[in-house]
Amino acid sequence: MLAIDRKYLTKIEQLEQLSEQERVELKKVTDKFAFRGNSYYLSLIDWNDPDDPIRKIIIPHLQELDKWGRLDPSDEKTYTIMPGLEHKYNSTAVFLVSNVCDGICRFCFRKRVFIDPQSAYLRDLPAALQYVKQHREVTNVLLTGGDPLVLTTSKLENIVRQLGQIEHVRIIRIGTKIPAFNPYRIIDDPALLEMIETYCAERKRIYVMTHFVHPRELTDAAVKAVGLLQRAGAVLANQTPLIRGLNDDPEVMAELLRQLSFIGAVPYYIFQCRPALGNKAYTVPIEEGYDIVEQAKSRVSGLAKRARYAMSHSTGKVEIIGKTKDLVYFRYHRAADDQDSGRLLAFKSNPNAYWLDDYEQAVEDSPVDLPNVSCQQE
Fold this sequence. Notes:
It is built from 13 helices and 15 strands. The chain is an alpha/beta fold. α7 (153-164) packs parallel to α10 and α12 (250-263) packs across α13. 44% of the residues are buried.
């Protein structure tokens, strides 16, 4: 059975569903940006439909070779304490514990992890744990990568157990696309669920941050995996990027939000697609994106519309909160500099802006000093 044999494909030449010409052309992309898929997720593709959403998520496209974007669009390097440990927001530390995913989204903002896998993940766990122990303001630790659930359960438990022993760490987040990419990793591993149950307590929680980006990913197996995680004690929240040709239709986005609310994976963020190298074809301009998100939210209940439309900018998580004919309004939902938290920014409208840096004229309040970079630069 495709869903259980867990066959992985890492070369575009292995995709027999593509024509020989397609495989030759797309190898130009995969020579630059890694490809990885598994038999379960690839089985969800309707290969007769060139606009199939699952295909758009995981199958390379020639437009990825367009010279646009940067390898580190959120300037994570600035906040890196040591390889694989980032500390950008006062209360949250980030551990990049894996350099592998069960599949690679074509619009990934951490392509650098797969380009240079040996340098971009955590290799000195004791040093990272010591850093967290010394920084009592850290109440949350996000495990990400790559995907933490690609690790064996025993390796993941070793990290979770030691973080759980730090008194001031009250939340461990696991950022993962495994429930979408390969729900059988969860369904077939009772030890993983036992681990989550063991380290969830009344005042300490494990949050699983899922990455469903289209309703078609919410298969029966995916929904079952979500339910198992919840019954083990995990709190679930979902974040999705807004992607051109995938979920940039208000009804598609509304259906995703609606279905997520039905299964209890709380809509948390809708992210502006980061201007990572190769992402131009996947990116929606900010002001168009705002209209899409608001139209989607108008179609669903309050429980389904809790997601904030935001961008992970170098200076913080910047929420897009409104626009008029001439102005666009932003607010720092979370700022790298605590003094900017909640700060309101207003800019002259720019329908061609993909990132905060693309706005030039500030109104009513001057923005913080932004990096002198544009998402047009490679």
